[in-house]
Amino acid sequence: MSTKIFVGNLPFSVTDASLRSNFGEFGKVSSAKVMMDRDTNKSKGFGFVEMESAEFAQAAIAGLNGMSVDGRAISVSLARPREDRATPGGNGSHGYRASNRSDVGYGTDGFGGRG
């Protein structure tokens, strides 16, 4: 079973290929991806690497965490599961709601909704 690793504080010069190469020194790499900004297509400064086993992943974490890459100390750790993102408005699973009151908002009697 593969193990996913988070790699943070990456210099913007790091590519998928260089990430794969550096982690490959510690074992078989299933995938390596530097996260890119969709608007500018520039690195966001972090990425993910999937190693084929937990032993390879632990070896890579021990060997690379804190290592200086182009003058930046990278952080390497096990990736946490992605948290559910809130809907726009950020108020629970139902999104933003100003009120549950029926007398607030647009009604049938003018702008205020009051009759």
TrEMBL record:
Pfam families: RRM_1 (PF00076). Keywords: Repeat, RNA-binding. One of its GO terms (cellular component) is cytoplasm. Residues 3-81 form the RRM domain. Residues 78-115 are annotated as: Disordered. InterPro entries: Nucleotide-bd_a/b_plait_sf, RBD_domain_sf, RRM2_NsCP33-like, RRM_dom, SLIRP/GR-RBP-like. This is RNA-binding protein. The lineage of its organism: Bacteria, Pseudomonadati, Pseudomonadota, Betaproteobacteria, Burkholderiales.
